[in-house]
């Protein structure tokens, strides 16, 4: 685990939700021209971006994340409304929103605090949970004009009972590899 790899902590989506978004995406791609659409296996809600991580940092961090997960309880996240980050006519990121339910916000804060304890910088921006669908608008017409031609993404929800540590592989598709799974304490398998 060299320093050239980037890592992040996230909540992966269940297979059914990934498939539903992927089916919707096929129709959306007819109107929405982005440089890169996210592979369905890579759909997730980021909790904390770590960046480059040493093996020593990763070991200490894993233990802290296990403790946070053991104290957590499962919760449901509603999602589905779409939006964007960036300029209205040429967004950088097109996403499906996830509701910032109290238990999600609470665990994200605990995870960020645990990461800060291990030498990572706290995120300064407000936490806005979302599922990235596509990156970098390349359409010739305005995004605002084209997005009106796309049917709405259906609302969906799922029960979250774990989070994971992902490693990024920039030259692969899907590009995220699960390194470790942190299961909540109220879940028994």
Q: Beta fraction of the residues?
A: 35-45%
Biggest β-sheet, characterized? 5 strands, antiparallel
Strand order of the largest sheet: 2-6-5-4-7
Q: What Rg, in angstroms, do the CA atoms define?
A: 17 Å
Query: SSE order in H/E notation?
Result: EHEEHEEHEHEEE
Q: Quote the CATH topology.
A: Cyclic Phosphodiesterase, Chain: A
How many domains? The number is: 1
Q: Which homologous superfamily in CATH is the superfamily?
A: Cyclic phosphodiesterase
DSSP strand tally: 9
List the uncertain runs. none
Shape by Cα distribution: globular
Number of alpha- plus pi-helical segments: 4
Catalytic activity: a 3'-end 2',3'-cyclophospho-ribonucleotide-RNA + H2O = a 3'-end 2'-phospho-ribonucleotide-RNA + H(+)
Domain Phosphoesterase HXTX: 11-95, 104-176
Protein name: RNA 2',3'-cyclic phosphodiesterase
Family: Belongs to the 2H phosphoesterase superfamily. ThpR family.
Report on the structure:
It is a single chain. By secondary structure, the chain is of the alpha+beta class. It has one domain: Cyclic Phosphodiesterase, Chain: A. The protein has 4 helices and 9 strands. It has a 5-stranded antiparallel beta sheet with strand order 2-6-5-4-7, with no helix packed on it. Strands 3-1-8-9 form a 4-stranded antiparallel beta sheet. The longest helix is centred in the first third of the chain and has 16 residues, at 55-70. It is globular and about 50 Å long. The mean pLDDT is 94. Residues 11-95, 104-176 form the Phosphoesterase HXTX domain.
